[in-house]
Design a protein that fits this description.
This protein is 65% helix and 13% strand. The chain has a 4-stranded antiparallel beta sheet, with no helix packed on it. Strand 1 and strand 2 form a beta hairpin. It folds into 2 domains: 5-73 and 116-285 and 332-451, Outer membrane efflux proteins (OEP); 74-115 and 286-325, no CATH class. By secondary structure, it is of the alpha+beta class. The radius of gyration is 40 Å and the shape is elongated.
């Protein structure tokens, strides 16, 4: 017995409802091996080659900065020498003289810079290098946070796309079966069946593409965090996106002027360039060093003279001041000063350019998040409207006032809206992190807020 129109409508609606509940349950109840965003970020922090390279560069820069102290501290060195001389003197007063002489010498030298302006400038530059190194490391860490979050939500978006395509395939399959039954009983034409079959074949192709995209996104996440078979935890349902605070683009820009790593690097480079000018100008100034030496000279076989065959030893200690005044160096000092002044102006221009770029990027990211939040609200309304439109078209098809293609189009619109809504939510969350990266305030603590939005394990 062929089911009635109302019975078929009930069965189709019931099956779609059960499928939607199953998808929601799959998103809300992650598997036991699912990982949170913070967990995967910690894995990436210990594995990602780019971040580890930046970390090692930071340690190298700190060691380089410590070298600036060397020119202010005393220096000491020791040297030792030994020599042997085969001496033959002919004719001698009585007979030929043939002796082997030896000489041993040990010297200890020490010096302490007293006045060297260039050395002080180098020391101050080393302090600026520490700030530069920290800014570079902060930039690398912020980049890792964004890359990890992007890869994390790319996997979730790909999973949602695949789930929605499967749900759409099930709905189209139901519509195809309904069209075939209606054609068999003579209540519809073969056109409805062919339209449903064409849409079903298209959804199959979309499912293959979505499944491949999910595999690619998982591979990218695995490579980033150094794990295999990663499974990110999905967002909790229902979801309330966090508000964007402060709600003023200028406030975000103001924060960036003192915290952004790019601006801090440019400021450090400017400070270093100014100190380089000081070093160049020091080429005209005198230097003063305190010097000391202690020398031991020993001749175990005596002196060269034939009558002196006794061993001798001489100890001498010297202390003094070494004063040096530069007079002329072929204009190299003047040209070096001009060079450093030009480089200082360049560093100042670079700093102003960095501030402008950061301000523009911050405003762009801020309005991007605002736009994303607006899209989420619009898509939430569109989802409800699309569901209502599908229900109306399905009922109209059953009573004969709508054709099969109307139902198929409504189904496609509904699942496309669901995909767009899920992706828009992910984009808002990642966009919030990118906004903080744009103004330089992003830190690992910001991931905790997103972690609280994930489904409980």
């Amino acid at each position: 017995m062929t089911p009635s129109f109302s019975a078929r409508r009930f069965l189709t609606t019931h099956r779609l409802g059960m499928l939607t509940l199953a998808l929601a349950a799959a998103a809300a109840l992650p598997t036991a091996r699912a990982q949170s965003l913070v967990e995967l970020y910690e894995s990436a922090r210990a594995f990602d080659a780019g971040y580890l390279s930046a970390r090692l560069q930071y340690e190298a820069n700190l060691a380089r900065a410590e070298q600036g102290k060397a020119n202010l501290l005393p220096s000491a060195g020791a040297s030792a020498a030994a020599s042997w001389t085969d001496l033959t003197i002919t004719p001698a007063p009585n007979a030929a003289l043939n002796r082997t002489l030896s000489n041993q010498n040990v010297t200890l030298n020490a010096s302490q810079p007293l006045y060297r302006p260039a050395n002080w400038a180098s020391y101050e530059q080393s302090n600026k290098l520490r700030g530069l190194a920290q800014a570079q490391l902060d930039a690398a860490e912020q980049d890792l946070i964004v890359r990890t979050s992007q890869a994390y939500f790319d996997v979730l978006a790909a999973q949602d796309t695949l789930n929605f395509v499967k749900a759409q395939k099930a709905a189209v399959e139901e519509q195809l079966a309904s069209a075939k039954r209606n054609f068999e009983v003579g209540t519809s034409t073969i056109t409805d069946t062919r339209e449903a079959q064409a849409r079903f074949d298209l959804v199959l192709a979309q499912e293959i593409a979505a499944d491949n995209d999910l595999h690619v996104k998982k591979i990218a996440l695995d490579q980033l965090v150094g794990r295999t078979g990663t499974q990110p935890r999905g967002l909790s349902v229902p979801l309330a996106l966090p508000a964007l605070l402060p709600a003023d683009a200028n406030a975000w820009v103001l924060q960036s002027q003192t915290s952004h790593p790019g601006i801090r690097q440019a400021q450090s480079n400017l400070d270093i360039a100014r100190l380089e000018v000081t070093k160049a100008e020091a080429g005209h100034r005198p230097t003063l060093d305190l010097t000391a030496s202690y020398n031991i000279n020993k001749n175990p076989s005596g002196a060269v003279t034939a009558s002196n065959t006794n061993s001798s030893r001489t100890n001498s200690a010297t202390m003094g001041l070494a004063f040096n005044v530069p007079l002329f160096a072929g204009y190299s000092t003047q040209n070096r000063i001009r060079e450093t002044l030009a480089l200082g102006d360049k560093a100042k221009s670079d700093l102003e350019g960095a501030r402008r770029n950061v301000a523009q990027s911050t405003r762009t990211a801020y309005f991007g998040v605002l736009s994303g939040q607006g899209q989420v609200k619009a898509l939430e309304a569109a989802e409800l409207s699309s569901q209502s439109a599908l229900d109306a078209n399905r009922l109209g098809y059953q009573v004969g006032v709508r054709i099969n293609i109307d139902v198929l189009n409504s189904q496609s619109q509904l699942f496309q809206t669901k995909r767009d809504l899920a992706k828009a939510r992910y984009d808002v969350l990642v966009g919030g992190l990118k906004l903080r990266q744009a103004n330089g305030t992003l830190s690992a603590q910001d991931l905790q807020q997103i972690n609280s939005l994930l489904a409980k394990p």
